[in-house]
Design goal:
This protein has 259 residues and is an all-alpha fold. The protein has a single domain, classed as Orthogonal Bundle (ADP-ribosylglycohydrolase fold), CATH 1.10.4080.10. Helix content is 51%, strand content 0%. Helix 5 packs across helix 6 (153-170). Bound molecules: magnesium ion. Magnesium ion (MG) is lined by residues 48-50, 93, 221-222. Belongs to the ADP-ribosylglycohydrolase family. Mg(2+) binds at residues 48-50, 219, 221-222. This is ADP-ribosylglycohydrolase.
């Protein structure tokens, strides 16, 4: 079984688990399995923008074998306009910074992310996991993939940290993880990454990790997706509850993008 499959299924299932609870406050709900409806009124097992943009990135790498910035940005645009990589071709969630970058894209210059400190949502962090599977990828390339939509140094640095962490887990290296209390599970990239590290490093199975992540509340889909990607790599596809894989929608889209 490929590690990319472990990662992407772990990610997509985390996303789908979190979608019904997005924006809900910690302690006001208790997620124990995959359900439908809730915040976005979607069917159970529906993944969101996080997975679609991750799959768009995968599909580009699959086609070219290397990072082609303009092609990735074109695929993001097709997702936004035509619903490519989205379940039923419906885009029901998009971050402001990502949307403004896609609007700015002229088809030529792909680096459309804002550099200001207010543009540090988790919108680039939530789509860079496939980069961990590109041989010899450099920090500059990871930075540039963030810059497509998020060009502030904080977003860039956290993307690099996350991709390198994923690679360490892929390679079975010992990783030392620390997080800051209190755990603020917001969409601010630093809070999101801190929440991910907390959920991942304080649990010992895929299921435990993603349930801990989603029950933090706040930006549940993105935090659980990112944590689920790492947990998928660590514990493997076979550790993901069968029932959740069964309920997950869009498996044909996922499988067509894996490389
Ligand atoms: Mg989302």
């Amino acid at each position: 079984m490929s590690k990319l499959k472990d990662a992407i299924y772990g990610f997509a299932i985390g996303d789908a688990l979190g979608v019904p609870y997005e924006f809900k406050e910690r302690g006001t709900f208790n997620c124990q399995t995959m359900i439908g409806h809730g915040t976005w009124n979607q069917k159970a097992g529906t993944f969101s923008d996080d997975t679609s943009l991750t799959l768009a990135t995968c599909a580009s790498i699959k086609k070219y074998g290397v990072i082609k910035y303009q092609d990735i940005m074109k695929r993001f645009t097709r997702w936004y306009i035509d619903g490519e990589y989205a379940i039923d071709r419906v885009v029901f969630d998009i971050g402001n910074t990502t949307m403004s970058a896609i609007h700015k894209f002229d088809g030529i210059n792909p680096f459309c992310g804002d550099t200001d400190a207010w543009s540090n949502g988790n919108g680039s962090l939530m789509r860079v996991l496939p980069l961990a599977f590109v041989n010899n990828i450099t920090d500059d390339e990871i930075a540039n993939v963030s810059r497509l939509t998020h060009a502030n140094k904080l977003s860039i640095d956290i993307c690099i940290k996350y991709v390198r962490l994923a690679q360490d887990i892929i390679n079975g290296n010992a990783v030392e993880l620390s997080y800051e209390e209190p755990i603020k599970s917001t969409g601010f990239v630093k809070d999101t990454f801190n929440s991910v590290i907390y959920a991942f490093s304080t649990t010992s199975s895929y299921k435990e990790c993603v349930l801990k992540a989603v029950n933090l509340g706040g930006d549940t889909d993105t935090i659980t997706a990112i944590a689920g990607g790492l947990a998928g790599i660590k514990y493997g596809y076979d550790s993901i509850p069968r029932e959740w894989i069964k309920i997950l929608r869009g498996k044909d889209i996922i499988d067509s993008c894996l490389f």
